[in-house]
């Protein structure tokens, strides 16, 4: 019996050795013929015996391998190019001194030459303090072993701006901070978080934002409909928005021009009154005309009275959030919440510039109601860009948001009860009062 077992073991070992030798032989033949396909001058007598069918299979295999290699290299190049462009978008080379200038600057920093006519330029930002909150997610981040602490460390290592992980906090810090946000929706494999800036100032603050978001792009961030980009504008003592008159002017201009702001955001889910974390301020005033809304706001006698108009019951989840101007435990800021998630660096930067210029210029509006009743969305957009007073921003948004299209600028308002659709918040309010439907 032992002899039989020994014989079977010997046969099995022999077969295994034979298979190994045969695989090695076939691998050697395949390697020689792949070399022959790559180098027409290569010749081996053993290759002459291959059947035509075998040669065809080898050729197809080689072509497939080559195509896969090329696709991989192209994807790598595309990724590198996208990251590089994200950090240099808006830059331009001076034709006189060849200096590569900072994004969107109107003149060369070295020789003062004007930017070429085809280059998008923005007017200088006012020296106003601001802050940003960027809600993002990292697809598959949790599955791949990332943590919010490790993301903060990597962002710090990648760039000039220090980033720390703070958990859930509203504490103001000198560094960029990553905080948790339960309002963000994602899969269990993803990581969702909010990146909060320190206090930023004017053009230097925009440059810091650009640096951090470029590094975020390198880590592979993404957004969905639950993400937003919130901009806080300083309303502390000494700022252009520190007095009640300026705050009333900003609030009045925003409420009347809400339809124009809606047209400038790419996500329709944040328009009208569709988002629970970004509700309409205009709908609060019901059927009131534009002139009545303006007069009501300018008659406010205190900050608390103004907040009760724009953010009743201290509801901060409105497109314009003024609740911080009455709180003693938070910095006094005017917050605009209606922009969607970080889709592109260029778009996010344009939005921040728009908000800063709007707040600064609207603070000086002392005339009568800036928008006539029954004005169309396009008229409201013209009034907004006239107030912002920056041709580059108007050009950027007109192209990116297709503001020349009536369909793109139109915002509709849906009744929460019967789902009937209206073209303005006043029409919706009038309908709800007439039939007894509630506006949530």
TrEMBL record:
UniProt keyword terms in alphabetical order: Metal-binding, Zinc, Zinc-finger
InterPro entries referenced in this protein's UniProt entry, alphabetically: Amidoligase_2, Znf_C2H2_type, Znf_RanBP2
RanBP2-type domain ranges (all copies): 88-117
Origin: domain of life: Eukaryota
Molecular functions (GO terms): zinc ion binding
Pfam annotation, one family: Amidoligase_2
Keyword Metal-binding (UniProt): yes
Entry-linked PANTHER family: AMIDOLIGASE ENZYME
Protein name: RanBP2-type domain-containing protein
Top-level taxonomy: Eukaryota, Sar, Stramenopiles, Ochrophyta, Bacillariophyta
